[in-house]
Amino acid sequence: VRIVERDGLVVGRVLDVQFYGGVSTLAVEVEGRPGPVLVTQSGTAGSAVGDTVSLVWEPEDGVLLAATEA
Predict the structure, then answer these.
(1) Which of 22, 25, 45, 54 lies most in the core, judged by the most C-beta atoms within 10 Å?
(2) What is the CA radius of gyration of the chain?
(3) 2 and 46 in contact (C-beta within 8 Å)?
(4) For residues 42 and 4, what is the distance between their CA atoms, to the nearest angstrom?
């Protein structure tokens, strides 16, 4: 999952940004998801808590999970 300037597949709001020795991890709240989407990228994050961001990913990076009954 990558953050892009605009026209992403999904739009969300940054909840948290962590920086660990050259790598940033952002927690992004996406409507309809029970928990945040985590995005890890090299370098410092170009987004801050509260920013609206667009997310994209390559089709081959998707994983289809079987539905389960609760």
Answers:
(1) 45
(2) 13
(3) no
(4) 14
CA distance 49 to 28: 9
Dist CA 28 CA 68 (whole Å)? 25
Tokens representing 64 are 């289809």
DSSP of 14-41, one letter per residue?
EEEEEEETTEEEEEEE-TT-SSPEEEEE
> How many Cβ atoms from other residues are within 10 Å of residue 20's Cβ?
8
- Residue 15: both structure tokens together: 């909840």
Look at residue 70 and tell me whether its pLDDT is greater than 70: no
The encoded tokens of residue 65 equal 């999970």
**Residues 8-60: pLDDT tens digits?**
788 999 999 999 989 999 999 999 988 999 999 999 888 999 999 999 888 88
Question: What's this model's pTM, rounded to 2 decimal places?
Answer: 0.80
